[in-house]
Design goal:
CATH architecture of chain B: 3-Layer(aba) Sandwich
Radius of gyration of chain B: 13 Å
CATH class of chain B: Alpha Beta
Distance between the termini of chain B: 11 Å
Strand order of the largest sheet of chain A: 2-1-5-4-3
Number of helices of chain A: 22
Helix content of chain A: 40-55%
Largest sheet of chain A: 5 strands, antiparallel
Oligomer: heterodimer
Helix content of chain B: 40-55%
Chain lengths: 698, 122
């Protein structure tokens, strides 16, 4: 190892060397001056050397050694002990250097003790928070599991381990799914992602989930964990065993049944016997005795039931249904994913709506019914039609063939459902939804299986203000589309294919440069609104969207910044609407924009205007705005925020108006267009007259 | 000949009253207590009206009703469903499957007999 060089070592060597040179110089001088000078040279030289050595000693003592000491101390302070004191001799020449290093040592000592304190505090805080979290997790009777998106367990509490099969097998880093049914968790995660995308940050609704290989049923809730950039990177599951809750629910159901249905039969028996006795005073003794016995028996039975009811009521615990708002489109989309690979084609029709129920159990029930229907009837193409009647939503599975016998349907519904739902049957799912299912004819050669469900009155629809009525447009060059011939002319109105569409614009004046900001449409085939065959595009209008328009359609400059211009979107819409009759409300307004965009595309198919058709069919009504007609016909499309909202509403209005047309003998498109054309001319004339009158008056 | 009625109910006490009252009103009455027996009795001699309890053993009232409506030979047969299931959905199900009336228990026997009289035009 190389020896460390010190200041005193280097300086000492230099001084010794210099002293030797001095001595050698004096010896040489004495030799040159001869013997006579030896003595004086020796005396003077000796004094010089002595003085030099004294000076060298002083330099070493006051400067070199303190410097070395300082270097050593600084090293100790820097590397080992900031509290180390400088070990300098009291007399030295380092002056302010030593003072500076001493000051630095002080600062370093205080900084380090501050850092240590802060670290200790942070560690204490962390430990305390950890203790808190542990205490909370330990205290929770709910099981908590945190997983990453690969479903590996990152954190869990004792309740989770107990519910999912003990700490022997359940643990950190392991996959969640041997312990918890995969399907409900994935479904809840998918639904929660959908909710996040549509701006719902609240935790998702509760759902049921099987654990321990389906032996145990849990009620769970899932929340998505977001990273710093708001991207999902995991999820938290909380769950409880459903046993007790479910038992309480079952008890409540039993009680309700006892209180209502259970009472009906004995009361009926009692009443019938009593009425018979009172209306027939001359009954023979034997018959009278028989009826009296009925009265006595049934009265006893009623008393016993009442007792049971009261007892059950006292024992009843709490319990909640795990129901949530479900959008029928989400349910049907999930159903389609589940049926992937199955020989069943599902077409969604009707007006999408919000229902109230348990998403997964309905999904599994519908899947089971479709598979059973397919194997029983051989049908492959099914419609799933959504319709509403007051506070009820009907889900109808429709196929070509015969209805299913009630007994067969009953046997399907009594089977245990698959999909991690525990020992639940289809009948239990229906019962839990306060529902039932039956099969009946649905028009010539068609059958349906109907499931009525509760509608979600307070669906999470984002209301927007009713749009101001657009000025009516009358442009007969635009409306005078070719009189329908060929395929359009001959077929009954309800058998034609239509595309109901709607444009949103920067304003109401195409002539003043207003432009399209969105286009949406939906296809209607054989009298069914094909809910999933929709067209929705945002369009960059190439000019700012006025605040007044944004208020009505909710489309902002930001939303359309990176969207294509209308001319680029139009070819896709042209293909979407090919071979279909176009339908729009106040159609001339929309057609103006379609044809103005140019690009060599022409929309030369017939156009039906629901505004003019309504005016023709209901001449006594004054208001033919979309909302007014919908209100009159009892139609409602709940998704006001959806881009296809107005198209769906227009489509639903068209179908209802076509029913009215049939009643009035309008069965072909030519008749219909001729009728609306006439109304259009009358209204245009009246409109012009009113304007003229207003102009004269002013 | 007087109109014939089949009472299908497994509650002997209500059957006792109904049979007595309907006979008293001049109808010919037969009684059965399960779904299969009801269909067998109908096949043997189709009645003019069936009083059908929903929750009879075997094939339930809905299934029997659907079976009757599926047979063109029994097209004119009237069906009144009697039930302790008082829910709106069950009522809708009964009517959808072809019942003419849906009566929830308890009911006034006098009104029921009146209703039957009107339905059978007697």
């Amino acid at each position: 190892m190389a020896r460390e060089r010190t200041v005193s070592g280097i300086l000492g060597a230099l001084l010794i060397g210099f002293a030797l040179l001095l001595a050698a110089g004096l010896v040489a001088l004495a030799v040159m001056l001869g013997e006579a000078a030896t003595r004086p040279v020796a005396i003077v030289g000796g004094a010089l050397v002595a003085a030099f050595l004294a000076l060298a000693g002083l330099i070493l003592h006051r400067l070199a050694w303190p410097l070395d000491r300082l270097a050593l101390d600084a090293g100790i302070i820097a590397r080992e002990n900031p509290g180390h004191r400088l070990g300098l001799v009291t007399r030295h020449w380092l002056g302010r250097i030593a003072e500076g290093i001493e000051a630095m040592r002080g600062r370093l000592t205080s900084a380090e003790s501050h850092g240590t304190r802060a670290l200790a505090e942070a560690q204490n805080q962390g430990a305390e928070q950890k203790r808190w979290l542990e205490a909370i997790l330990l205290d929770l009777t709910e099981g908590i599991v945190v997983c990453n998106l690969q479903h590996q367990v990152l954190l869990y509490n004792q309740a989770a381990a107990d519910l999912l099969g003990g700490t022997q097998s359940f643990g950190l880093g392991r996959s969640l799914f041997p312990f918890l049914a995969r399907e409900p968790v994935l479904h809840a995660l998918e639904r929660q992602m959908q909710r996040l995308e549509s701006g719902w940050a609240a935790p998702g609704p509760r759902f049921m989930c099987g654990a321990g290989g389906g032996e145990r049923l849990l009620g769970a809730r899932l929340g998505v964990v977001l990273d710093a950039k708001s991207a999902p990177n995991g999820y938290v599951l909380s769950f409880t065993e459903l046993g007790e809750e479910e038992t309480a629910l079952a008890k409540r159901d039993d009680l309700l049944e006892l209180a209502t249905q259970g009472m009906r039969a004995p009361v009926a028996n009692l009443r019938a016997a009593a009425e018979t006795l009172s209306h027939n005073p001359d009954l023979p003794d034997a018959q009278r005795a028989a009826f009296q016995k009925v009265v006595l028996d049934e009265s006893m039975a009623l008393s016993n039931q009442l007792e049971a009811l009261a007892r059950g009521y006292r024992e009843l615990g709490g319990g909640r249904w795990m129901m949530a708002e479900i959008h029928t489109n989400d349910l049907i989309a999930s159903l389609n994913r589940h049926l992937m690979g199955a020989p069943v084609q599902l077409t969604a029709t009707g007006l999408p709506d919000w229902l109230y129920g348990d998403s997964l159990s309905l999904l599994v029930l519908l899947e089971l019914l479709l598979r059973q229907l397919h194997s029983a009837t051989g049908a492959e193409a099914f419609d799933i039609a959504v319709s509403r009647s007051e506070n009820r939503i009907y889900l109808d599975l429709i196929w070509r063939g015969e209805p299913i016998p009630a007994q067969q349907l009953g046997s399907w519904l009594n089977r245990s459902l698959i999909g991690g739902l525990g020992p639940l049957t289809g009948q239990a799912v229906l019962h839990r939804h306060g529902s039932d299912a039956w099969s009946q004819p649905a028009g010539p050669g068609m059958a349906r299986l109907r499931i009525p469900l509760a509608s979600a009155q307070a669906g999470p629809s984002r209301e927007r203000p009713l749009r101001p009525q657009r000025p009516e447009f009358y442009d007969f060059d635009l409306l005078r589309h070719p009189v329908p011939t060929g395929r359009f002319a001959e077929r009954p109105l309800k058998q034609l294919t239509y595309v109901a569409f709607d444009l949103e614009t920067t304003g109401l004046k195409p002539a003043d440069g207003d432009e399209v900001v969105s286009i949406a449409g939906v296809r209607i085939v054989n009298g069914r609104i094909l809910t999933t065959e929709t067209f929705e595009r945002l369009v960059n209008p190439g000019r700012p969207i006025p605040e007044t328009s944004i208020r009505f359609h909710g489309i902002t400059d930001e939303m359309v910044r990176d969207k294509p211009p209308f001319a680029m979107v139009l070819p896709a819409f042209h293909r979407f609407a090919a071979d279909a009759v176009l339908v729009a409300h106040n159609a001339a307004f929309d057609i103006t924009f379609l044809n103005r965009a140019g690009g060599g595309l022409s929309f030369d198919q017939p156009v039906v205007d629901t505004l003019l058709l309504s005016a023709h069919l209901y001449p006594a009504e004054a208001d033919h705005s979309l909302d007014a007609i919908a209100a009159r016909l009892g139609l409602d499309v709940v998704d006001r925020h959806s881009a296809v909202h107005d198209s769906l509403l227009t489509a639903a209005i068209l179908l209802r108006l076509l029913d009215r047309c049939e009643e009035l003998g309008i069965t072909r498109l030519g008749q219909l267009i001729a009728a609306t054309d006439m109304v259009g001319r009358l209204r245009a004339h009246q409109h012009g007259f009113e304007r003229h009158a207003a102009g004269s008056a002013s | 000949m007087s109109a014939s009625i089949l009472v299908a109910d497994d509650e002997p006490n209500i059957v006792l009253s109904l049979e007595f009252l309907l006979k008293q009103a001049g109808f010919r009455v037969r009684t059965v207590s399960d779904g299969e027996a009801a269909l067998a009795a109908i096949a043997q001699e189709p009645p003019d009206l069936v009083l059908l309890d929903v929750m009879i053993p075997g094939r339930d009232g809905y299934a029997v009703c659907q079976e009757i409506r599926g047979n063109p030979a029994w097209r004119g047969m009237r069906i009144i469903m009697l039930t302790a299931k008082g829910g709106e959905i069950q009522r809708e199900k009964g009517l959808s499957l072809g019942a003419d009336e849906y009566v929830t228990k308890p009911f006034s026997t006098r009104e029921l007999v009146e209703r039957i009289r009107r339905m059978l035009g007697s």
